Automatic annotation (TrEMBL):
It comes from Streptomyces genisteinicus. This is Beta-glucosidase. It catalyses: Hydrolysis of terminal, non-reducing beta-D-glucosyl residues with release of beta-D-glucose. It is an enzyme of class 3 (hydrolase). PANTHER family: GLYCOSYL HYDROLASE, LP05116P. The keyword Coiled coil does not apply. Belongs to the glycosyl hydrolase 1 family. GO terms for biological process: cellulose catabolic process. One of its GO terms (cellular component) is cytosol. GO terms for molecular function: beta-glucosidase activity.
Amino acid sequence: LDARPDTTTHRFPAAFRWGTATAAYQIEGAAAEDGRTPSIWDTFSRTPGKVRNGDTGDIAADHYHRVSEDIALMRRLGVTDYRFSIAWPRVQPTGRGPAVQKGLDFYRRLVDELLEAGIRPVATLYHWDLPQELEDAGGWPQRETAHRFGEYASIMAGALGDRVATWTTLNEPWCAAFLGYGNGVHAPGRTSALASLRAAHHFNLAHGLATGALRGALSPGSEVSLTLNLHAVRPHSDSAADLDAARRIDAVGNRVFLDPVFNGSLPEDLVRDTAAVTDWSFVLDGDLETASAPIDSLGINYYSPTVVAAGSGPAEASPWAGAEQHVRFLPAPGPRTAMDWPVDANGLHELLMRLRDDLPGVPLVITENGAAYDDYADPSGEVKDPERVAYLHAHLAAVHRAIEEGADVRGYFLWSLLDNFEWAYGYSKRFGIVHVDFATQRRTFKDSARWYAEVIARGGLAE
Ligand code: PNW
């Protein structure tokens, strides 16, 4: 039996937000119901060879039909907040024109049931499911898409602005721009360095336009935010060449979004590094001002650190526009998750220290952290996931240490509530703290769910 003394070793601030996170395409299913049309992820997952085992989000965790059941799971966990995303093609199927009432109704019911359960709704407007029609018109490399996104944001602000606690404009624009248009591992699967940089800029513009649209419709106490998967970049050595490799990845991985959003500027070194790809003439007067509309917090998704050295990677189909010939990625040492991602909680602490120093006055929220592991079904019927518990414990301890050292971290959202459609990996990777049997849609708490409920109840960690 567990012999831990019942003493809290890491107590979090009383107002700390404890949540779980999901995304529409990864859990909802009901891909063709109530007027929803295909997004780029429907098209991509139906293209042979793009997603492992040919998996799609057609059914996923069937959350569209199981909202009440899933909110009951969250009540059992005791979370204070729930981070979900809105599927743009459910609300505005062609990405233009009037909203579909049934799409709005679905999210209104979700939000109202959350509020009834005492759980704060944290809504992300874009978690990668662009209406296919907008991709057919050019997608994110096309400026018009940013304006369409601003319009969609005002529809959502009008529909739910009185009851959503936190709006997140975009989830991980780095993945959407550079994996979607750079190396093509994510939808829409295009491979062009220029397209990836254009997309990144239009995400910044879209974020600013949406922030403006939301600002006017917020209820008192509501907030606007942006979630980035910032790369915790470590140079392999202190050599000038390795430090320069780290600078390049920081520019095209982090500052490509941080500088426009928090400074209203483009990183000068990024413009230099990418001179062979573009002169950035797609950045028009006023864009950076729009992108830098003040926001209330920054969301950070963290899974593992990135170690780089001078060298070169594959020139073709890279998500690192302009850095391919100068940077080599090294495997970080130590244990790995089922994604083969290194487990290293120090990377999260390093990132939070950097943001404490670089973005003073900006409240931080961990909007995703978690790990994929294969579950072990105990003969007792319990789902054992000791590695996930160890991963989560170590990362929450790192957040706690960062708070003690002055980082203004307001909350933590565990990725993910449910096992779900893990993008290019399909259903082969399980991130949930609740096991989903995809044949029956039966949900079962894993040990990590019980552990997280205890952490939330205690307001911190115990040994
Ligand atoms: C994030 N990478 O995706 C997403 O926000 C989630 O939807 C996803 O399920 C989760 O992390 C786990 O993967 C990422 O290759 C996908 O650097 C890929 C990368 C990073 C984040």
